[in-house]
Design goal:
single chain; about 190 residues; alpha/beta; Rossmann fold; about 10% strand
């Protein structure tokens, strides 16, 4: 165990991520524009990325920094009954795409979190969202995988270390929330 080394590795990753600021802001502005127009936001991810998806959705329906109206956001990773029903009756690859089919409308947003960008269930969800004319955002790592080309805005953390990628995904989702609260809604 070398915690000082881990902290130094995080600092180096943060330095490499400074170049991502314009892309993170562009994605945040696109998200804010859709939210301002009344779109709902669907989020998903697997494992630790599911936690990031839930975090973004709960901050939108609850609050981030300001008291404001609740925003329509739903984490597709959060409902265990839907996940197990769809996984059992269809397949694990369909757990998110079936929900996008059920809840996603043209103009809505799908936000995907993945450290590898390779999960078949995320790829299928993005394909469904694209067919439904939804805006597609992703926070990724390890080069972005197959998810990257399916997105309108894909932010790829320049790292192959899952821990560092997830730490930066926390910063990205907070940056997007900052854009939404600053550009899409006012204080109440």
């Amino acid at each position: 165990m070398n915690l000082a080394h881990d902290l130094s590795a995080l600092e180096e990753t943060v330095k490499r991520c400074h170049s991502l600021v314009p892309a993170v802001e562009a994605a945040g502005r696109a998200l804010a524009e859709r939210v301002k127009a009344g779109a709902k936001v669907l989020t998903c991810g697997n494992g630790g990325s599911a936690a990031d998806a839930m975090h973004l959705a709960e901050e939108m329906t609850g609050r981030y920094r300001t008291n404001r109206k609740a925003l329509p956001a739903l984490s597709l990773s959060a409902d265990g009954t839907a996940l197990t029903c769809i996984g059992n009756d269809w397949s694990f690859e369909d757990i998110f795409s079936r929900q996008v089919e059920a809840f996603g409308q043209p103009g809505d947003v799908l936000v995907v979190f993945s450290t590898s960008g390779k999960s078949p269930n995320l790829l299928k969800a993005l394909e469904t969202a694209k067919a439904r004319k939804m805006l597609r955002l992703a926070a990724l790592g390890k080069g972005g995988g197959g998810v990257k080309p399916l997105c309108d805005h894909a932010i790829v953390v320049p790292s192959d270390d899952t821990s560092r990628i997830q730490e930066m995904h926390g910063w990205i989702l907070h940056a997007w929330l900052e854009c939404v609260e600053t550009l899409a809604v006012g204080k109440t």
